[in-house]
Design a protein that fits this description.
Blueprint: E1 4-5, H1 16-25, H2 37-49, E2 55-59, H3 62-71, E3 78-83, H4 87-90, H5 95-100, E4 103-107, H6 116-119, E5 133-140, H7 151-163, E6 167-171, H8 175-182, E7 197-201, E8 211-215, H9 224-230, H10 239-249, H11 253-273, E9 279-280, E10 288-292, H12 295-301, E11 305-306, E12 308-311, E13 316-320, H13 327-343
Parallel strand pairs: 1-11, 3-4, 3-5, 5-6, 6-7
Antiparallel strand pairs: 2-8, 7-8, 9-10, 10-13, 12-13
Length: 345
């Protein structure tokens, strides 16, 4: 076990308030599969948080959230457009394709963000029966590159999506980090911009497990509970997800955790910018950094810290900060990085 991990916000622990909420929920008996009073209350709180006139439900994992959301929107002859770096393309072992039988149309991007200009050339295959028909544009906010869509960029993309008769899905595993960075409400970057269905992550931001799905098109997702069951995402003891989200929403714990992770990433980024031998290859906007550094330093640092090499060829690593990353962790990492670089001179 590493004393400090910058590998993923999944490596962080569970927030103390969440543990207390789980213990409180662990009393007596209550109906299962989401029929308990706590789950019904928290789902209502979620729907109000996202602006009302929507449908919320809980699933167990981020991959499950994407699968359940997209299965509601596509048929097997459809195509789902996404960035080449998208989690549904790279890190979900083909789960979306397996469950939906739809095709992923991946689009190269310089920064993980889709734009109408990048999407447009791929619409030429929407012509006839020989081609998969584009139905959904799927984006992540924030992206796998740690970049952010501005509110205006989201509106433009949603309007463009709907002008094509398509639907907009947002993978919101780090939606809390995005809202914290943009200093806006969750509603402003989902319902208000015209998203059709989104996920709201908790596991990467202090929860033990559990993600929320919010559909702004209940007319299209009336069968979501059946897809959730088929995809093995219906958790029987739902109160344990609901208890976590109850405290997560209270006093905006989701925002506090995400803001801290973002602040630690900004601090780390400021230190790195002062080191000539390393280079930030993407702007630091949320809680992730993409850094080019000498290979020997990568190998030395990985003996003490857990982090991933993002690009083997270019020696780019990804560093992630979490709700429980501290300034001391950052300072220690920078000290060790500088020591490694000095030894190689």
């Amino acid at each position: 076990m590493f004393s400090v991990s910058l590998g993923s916000d999944n490596h962080s622990g569970v927030h103390p308030a969440v543990w207390k909420a789980l213990l409180k929920a662990d009393e007596g008996f209550t109906p299962a599969y989401g029929e308990d009073p706590l789950t019904l209350k928290v789902l209502n709180k979620l729907e109000l948080l996202f602006g009302g006139d929507c449908q919320a439900c809980f699933v167990m994992t981020g991959t499950g959230a994407n699968v359940v959301a997209l299965q509601n929107l596509v048929k097997s002859f459809n195509a789902i457009f996404c960035a080449q770096t998208a989690h549904i393309n790279v890190d979900e072992c083909g789960a979306v394709q397996k469950f939906t039988q739809a095709r992923l149309q991946v689009i190269p991007t310089p920064d993980g963000k889709l734009t109408p200009e990048l999407i447009s050339p791929y619409l030429l295959n929407n012509r006839d029966q020989h081609h998969s028909q584009g139905k959904v544009i799927s984006i992540a906010q924030s992206t796998e590159y740690g970049t952010l869509y501005s509110i205006e960029e989201l509106k433009v993309l949603a309007d463009y999506t709907h002008s094509l008769g398509m639907l907009l899905h947002i993978d919101g595993a780090r939606l809390a980090n995005a809202a914290a960075a943009l200093n806006c409400s969750l509603k402003e970057i989902t319902k208000d911009i015209g998203a059709d269905i989104i996920s709201f992550g908790g596991t990467k931001n202090g929860l033990l497990f559990g993600e929320a799905l919010i559909s702004f098109r209940p007319d299209l997702t009336s069968d979501i509970r059946f897809y959730r069951k088929q995809c093995t995402q219906l958790f029987s003891k739902m109160r344990y997800i609901s208890a976590q989200f109850d405290v997560y929403l209270e006093d905006e714990l989701w925002r506090k955790n995400a803001s801290h992770a973002n602040e630690m990433a900004a601090l780390l980024g400021n230190f790195l910018k002062k080191i000539p031998e390393v280079e930030l290859i993407q702007p630091v906007e949320v809680n992730s950094l993409f850094v080019r550094m000498p290979r020997n330093s990568i190998e030395e640092l990985q003996e003490k810290y857990h982090f991933y090499i993002w690009d083997e060829v270019r020696n780019v690593v990804r560093l992630m900060c979490s709700f429980n990353t501290t300034e001391e962790h950052i300072e220690e990492f920078i000290f060790d990085l500088k020591s490694s670089l000095a030894q190689s001179l």
